[in-house]
TrEMBL record:
Function: May play the central regulatory role in sporulation. It may be an element of the effector pathway responsible for the activation of sporulation genes in response to nutritional stress. Spo0A may act in concert with spo0H (a sigma factor) to control the expression of some genes that are critical to the sporulation process.
Name listed for the protein in its UniProt record: Stage 0 sporulation protein A homolog
Keywords tagged on the record: Phosphoprotein
Provenance organism: Roseburia inulinivorans
Gene Ontology terms for molecular function: DNA binding; phosphorelay response regulator activity
Length: 244
């Protein structure tokens, strides 16, 4: 199921978007749910609760808070949401890319162009979902792009997920279960019983530890150094990286 949200202070636009998405999901036979918000405050309140749409259609010019500022707040919680700006002016087009916008859609919105846009963004969402992980944390339900996961460690009965942007997410679970899911991808391996590492973020391997690009140190168990180095070298060669 794909979750979509619309945020626009113009009720006519929200009504049009509702009609367009209804026609789209019937014609394409897609499993889609959607919610409409007339104010940025309502939208951000839901997102802060952990309710995250896969796709957000966001008006740029709204009273109180413009869409660019709203998008910047959203990116503090979710870096994967597909944000599509809606506007009558191309004025903010360049700025939209600073918040990782997927598209900048000029109004009025015609059915043919809307359907093409939906086809493209849904294909991107499906591709992302195959390479992502759903976490239940104290902040709600979060989808992690596996490319952004540097490493995971066990701390007591919790798993700590260290992300590329410096964020650390906490979730209950078993590292054994997580490793079973992620080690099907060639870039993840388990050098230590308490750590699962994304080899894309390894900076250096010494006799005693793995140094990550964020300067974190992953301990190497006694007698495992050669095996770990071989695993990393094999990954580097297969990934066509330069190895000297």
């Amino acid at each position: 199921m794909i979750k979509i949200a619309f945020c626009d202070d113009d009720m006519e636009v929200l009504h049009q978007m509702n009609e367009l998405i209804d026609r789209y999901r019937v014609e394409r036979n897609e499993d889609i749910t959607y919610a409409a918000f007339q104010s940025p405050f309502e939208l951000l309140t839901e997102i802060e609760k952990g309710i995250r749409p896969d796709i957000l259609f966001l008006d740029v010019v709204m009273p109180g808070q413009n869409g660019m500022d709203v998008a910047k707040e959203i990116r503090q919680y979710d870096t994967n949401m597909k944000i599509i700006f809606l506007t009558s002016s191309p004025e903010f087009a360049v700025e939209s890319y600073s918040v990782g916008a997927y598209f900048y859609q000029l109004k009025p919105i015609w059915e043919e162009s809307f359907f093409r846009l939906m086809d493209a963004v849904l294909a991107e969402c499906e591709k992302k979902k195959k390479n992502s992980l759903i976490l239940r944390s104290k902040d709600g339900i979060t989808r992690i792009d596996l490319q952004q996961l540097e490493y995971c460690e066990v701390l007591g009965r919790k798993l700590l997920f260290h992300l590329e942007n410096g964020a650390v997410l906490e979730s209950a679970g078993s590292l054994d279960d997580l490793a079973g899911q992620l080690m099907q991808y060639s870039n993840f391996f388990r050098p230590h019983r308490s750590f699962l590492v994304n080899m894309e973020y390894i900076q250096n391997i010494s006799s005693r530890s793995i140094k990550m690009v964020n300067d974190a140190e992953i301990p190497i168990p006694h007698g495992k150094c050669s095996e770990i180095k071989n695993t990393y070298m094999e990954y580097a060669f297969n990934g066509e990286q330069a190895v000297l």
